[in-house]
Batch of 4 targets.
Target 1
Amino acid sequence: MEKQIKILFFGDITGRQGRLAVKSFLKSQAGDADFVIANIENASHGFGLTKKNYEDLSNSGIDCFTSGNHIWDKRDIFEYIDEAQKLVRPINYPAGTKGAGSRVFDLKGRKFAVINVLGRVFMPPIDSPWEVVINEIERLKSEGVESIIIDFHAEATAEKICFAKYLAARYNSEENALIKAFFGTHTHVQTADEKIYKGMAYITDAGFCGAEESVIGMEFSTSFKRLSTSIPERYEIAETPLAQINGVEVLIDGNLSTQIKRINLIVDNKKNESEDNVENTGG
């Protein structure tokens, strides 16, 4: 029997607290993971991704970064996105947009592709994903890709479920699954509907990694003002010692995904930072 492949996927990393929590997890609990993916559109103070944070997270053991509508929020993204070989931006931006909407990785001698997609329901205007994604899957198949992982960054649960079922029905069977995993992101709230569907690991939303005492990673006070008054208020990232880590662990056996398990942990970033400082100084 072909050896299992273990994939770790982390929901939206949000701000410094999310970065610290995921780095700590990778250092102590990643175990025998073969490939690590993280959504990082909120990684730099809640909005976008700086080059410095991209490089830091790359060095922590993350193999691929997916994103979403906030990937453009830090202006230096335009300076490095074309050279960022681990970074995937949503594929259904107009032709000519900087960056890549999919990337292919070699994993134990097999070609794995990661596609990032934006939904359209309750989201900013964007090209329809239906035709764009099918065209990309067909292109990847023609180049010998045999496993595809999709991060569908969308607001509406129905849109995520419908898109996943459509792809699984079109490309997967009980013996062979081209679409090995379909992870929903964007809402920052982990759903409890993880399942294997036609050999495809699925979850409607993987959740987020960031400040536990927050409103999806943001300070309560600014969120409250904005939501209760409808008056524009700049969101501020929450900075609390406790952070939550949301994601999923997927096992792939041969041509099928066979197991998906949610990751839902609370960690103490302050404690982890202290331990790292002791370790680094030899104390």
Target 2
Amino acid sequence: MELAFIIEKFALILVIFVISLTIAAYSTLAERKIAGFLQDRVGPNRAGPGGMFQPLADGLKMFFKEEIIPTESSTALFILGPSLALFTSFLGSAVIPWGQDVEIAGRMVSLQITDINVGMLYIFGVVSLGVYGIMIGGWASNNKFSLMGAVRAASQNISYEIPMGLSIIALLMSTNTLSMKEIAEQQHGINWNIFYQPLGFLIFLVCSFAETNRTPFDLPECETELVGGYHTEYSGFKMGAYMFAEYLNMFLASAVMSTLYFGGYNYPGMDWVNEMAGSVIGPFIGMGVLILKIFAFIFLFMWVRWTVPRFRYDQLMNLGWKILIPLAIANIVITGIVITIFEKL
């Protein structure tokens, strides 16, 4: 393996890691600013100009706060829970194509850490692992409210992964590939999958809210019933790890939806822009477009949180099993019929 290739990959990993951390950190500020706007108040405005240093202040507070481990907890698992939740939230971005290949020093460099032919399945596997961090943390706390929140999280993730997977089957039927890069390349210009799979996207969007435990699906940490849910006994940096993992998962879900349904780094007039900007600047413009799409989805996550009340638990289960799964199956059938008709024409 060439040394230059290894350096390229390490550099790309570092850049994506920093971008992910920065967006997740400032998503906490955006969340509080958007909440303030919707509730007709200012939001954080003390730490730095306009509150720009608030995420740094919150991070330092979490880092230096006293760590309390309950005496009756399983210490090793109590530490493993938030560590696993934070670790798995970083893994999904490895298969996201962030832009077209860029020419640097005579070499074509891919703006994707790795292109595996089962990229979508990889993301599903990583997302499935994330619930173990919540389940382990809730169980290890030896607190009935934490355990109840962990059980809710596990059942919620299992329930909503099924319609999410079924919505991806319909997309697979349309694209004939599981590679994230190939799916992005097929949506060149404005040939986006949202126009071919609107119902599949809607199902995927709702399931993304459930998978990330965001309102109206935040039953695992329902403060009115469970104090704080699975992280009730956590404090300091471990508590911050759970909170940070939620925002990283929201970032990943936004990146996946942007890539699968909204063209990823593709945009109208991209060929003309690439011709004018050149083979070096053009791909980075596409990367900027993808990040703007991600910001739009993150804003949607936050807007819904401060607008829609949470479901009751029976409503949550009914929506997943009685509405989304039949809709996802119907979407597969409709997609198959449409594809068959077009093939015979």
Target 3
Amino acid sequence: MTAAVILGACPHDCPDTCGTVTEVEDGRAVAFYGQVDHEITQGWLCGKVRPYLEHVYHPERLMYPLRRVGPKGSGLWQRITWEEAAAEISDRWKGIIEDLGAEAILPYSYSGTLGLVQMTVSSARFWNRLGASQLQRSICGAKIYSLSSTSCT
């Protein structure tokens, strides 16, 4: 059987938007690599992205939400539904907002696979509507000035 070839783009938040190629046989990805004719990256993929198939098909990959049922570090977890997970997060956030105000919730961004849809369109609108704390959308990119000098660190 011939593998289907699917062209895509890396979902990570770096500026290259690397072109990817996924070969699929019988509904399962069997190869994943950089798109050779990509104008910028020319087939190169970073160390975070190259082993995607190892992560996707790893036997210990999380496939559903878990709730910790023991002390931190104990490794004791209970499977819960997506609805339970969303309700628990919503209830906790509502409690924080009621007790401390919406600005007590600090969105963290610029990590992992947060691309344009997640970070630019839906994320900003969601956090603004919630009334959460505002911050430059990149902790890594902010200029931080040392108190002892005028140079950036």
Target 4
Amino acid sequence: MAVGIFDSGLGGLTVLNAVQRRLPDVEFLYFADSANAPYGVRDADDVFELTRRAVARLWEGGCDLVVLACNTASAAALRRMQEGGLPQGKRVLGVFVPLIEALTERQWGDNSPPREVEVKHVALFATPATVASRAFQRELAFRAIGVDVEAQACGGVVDAIEEGDMILAEALVRSHVDALKRKMPHPQAAVLGCTHYPLLEGTFQDALGADVKVFSQANLVAESLADYLKRHPGMLGRGAPGYLTTGNPGRVSDRATQFLRREIRFSAA
């Protein structure tokens, strides 16, 4: 039995690592659309179609529940997939809601009207496609009022991480933080709106300053998934666990092993 985890590339492994620690008895089937990564520079229709195909592949693999461990896919495809109707017994979850629940200090399932929250100035760091979608701001507006969000599109960061060039990635992060601070000099909180970014959480924190609370997704998504499966134990699926990629399995395996510092072996999707 396996739950599906999908990302355009390797960023979702940060989520996978967290959910495996939180749910050691649950098996997972991870799908990386490496041949088409990164999604962050694609238009919304393209991201939707690629995400739809990837989710369908995970459903074919026996996963009844799929987590979009990709902010760009969550932003551009999740609502559209849900509104278009899912096959009976299938569910797709995104990564925005757990993050926003933590930011606004609201419990899962709290459907009360939006209210004022303590944090008033939020910096959002994300891919260009996620920023353009304004999905984060839309979901936040369902839960909170009076929050000023300044979004910074972090071009090049995902590409550098996927290529294993962490020196370049760190330099890009510092440049993007500087650009954000020119627009919002004193953010109270910062949201890392890409599952690649937890690998650079320390760099973000250092560039932002110790007084800025940084929200990263992996552990928040893991807690949210644990809660969901507790309430919906029948969503564990029936497929076998493993790692699938549309890219070169050997190359992706090597990058993934570097990424998680443990051996990961991908098969062709």
